[in-house]
Amino acid sequence: MDKFLVPLKPIPQLSTKPIRRRRWHRSLIELNGKLEPKYRHSVSGLLMQSYSELRAFRHLYHIDRNPCQTHVNRVVINGTYIPPSIKEGVSALDFDNKGIYLASVTRSGCLTVHDFETLYCQSNEPLLRLEEDEAKHVLHLSLHQQLDFVRWNCANQDEVVCTSMKRNEVLIFDISYISSTPSEVLRTKLRPAIFGSNIQKGLSDIAFTSCEDSRVLASDTDGVIHIWDRRTSTFPCLELTANPHGSLNSIQLNVENQIIFGAGKHGVIHAWDLRGGRTSSFFKGSKEVSRPPLTSLKLSSTLEKIGPLKEQSAIVSKEIHSINLDPCCPHQLAFHLDDGWSGVLDIHNLEVTHIHCPPPAWLNESVGSDLSYLRKPSWLPTNSIYVVGSSTDNGIHILDFYPDSSSPCHVDYNEDAHRLSGVKDQDKQNRFISLSEGVTACAVHPLNSTIITGTKHSSLLMVSQTHKSC
User: Which SMART domains does the UniProt record give (predicted)?
Assistant: First the structure.
C-alpha cells in the first residue's frame, strides 16, 4: 500500500535571516474609500493638461425669426469680424447647482438659458454645423438694455437673476413658465445729488443666501451693497456702505451666510458682518439702515509684504475685477486684478498666500488689457484650481491654488526643494490654454468640471478634457 501513497514534501527549514518588512504601497483610496486632498493635488496636473477647446458656439440666435440684438451686433464681412460701434460680448455665465442649465448674458442685452447636455452632445458632432440648436434653448430674451451679471438663485433653481451697471434694477425670471417679462423686479432708491437731482446707480453683482430664496444682495457702482427681503418690499431693507465710495465690482457671501465680502475700483476688499453683533438682528428692522464694513483691506499693502514680488515689480493699487471663495477650501478668497494678476487672500489671517503674475502685454507683443470688460473667473469644484481669462491673449489660465506651499503659485514655493523631492515638474505647473477668441467670463460645470467661457465676440467656447488624455 505504501507505493500508492504520495510521498510527503520535505518541510523547508526556516531561514535564520531577519525578515525585511515591506512598506505599504497601496493608495489610501483602497483603505478608506475616498480621495485624500493631497492625492487629488498630486494628480491635478494630469487634469490641467487634459483640457482643450472642443467647440465654439456663436450667438447667431433669432427671436420671432428675426436676428436678436446680439446677433445684429455681430458684424461679419467676407468672413472677417468687424467690431461694432457699441460694446458687445458675453458679460457673465452661471451654472445651476446640478449643471443642467447654463445661463448667459451679453452686453447687447440678451439673456439665454442653455441646456448643457445639448451643448455637450453637439460639441462632439462634425463641424459642418456651427450654430447651436436654438430649439433646445430653455429661454432666450432680448431685453434691449446692457446686462452685466447673471446668477441662479441657489435656494430656488427655477429663478435666474440678472443686473446691469446702467440700471438700478434686479430682474428675476422664473423659467418654470415662459415669459418675456420678469416675474419680479427689485429696485434701489434713487440718491439725491448735490444739485438736487436724483442719481441712478447701476448694479454690478448679485448674491443669495443659501438658506432661503427671499434674501437678495446686490452691489452697485457707488460702493453700496443693497439687501432685499422679498417678503416685505421691492426696495432694500438694509444697506452696507464702503469707504471710500467707488464701484463694487464683485461680492461673495461665505458658506455660513454671515460674512459678505466686496471688492472693486479702489483695490480694497471689504468685509461686513451681516449679524451686526447679534445673530437675530439680520433683516429684523423694517426701515432701511446703513452699516459700515467690519474691516477693510487695501490689497496693494498686503502684496508689498511679499518680498520677492516687491523686488521684481512696482506694487500699485489696482482695480479688483472679481473675488471668489474656493468651494473646497472656504478660507481662500481668490481675487483677479485689472492687469491680469490673480491670487488668493487667506481670510483667516488676511495675508496673500498665492499670486500669479502673467507677463505684461509689451513683453510678448500682445495687445493691452481691455478695461471695458470686467473679467469673471471661476473655481473648479475640486482641487483648488482657478480658471481665469487672459487679459492680453486669446485663452485662459488654469492656476494651481492648492492651500499648501507645494502649489507653484504659493508665496513660499521653493522650486529647488520641489525638484529635489522627485516630483515631476509637469505635475505641478500652471497652464495656459490658447483659444479662438478673447475670454471675458468663465463658468465651470459643478460635476464634470467642463469649462464654458464667454468671449468678447459673444460666443461660448467649450473647453473640456480630451479623450486622448483620459
Answer: WD40
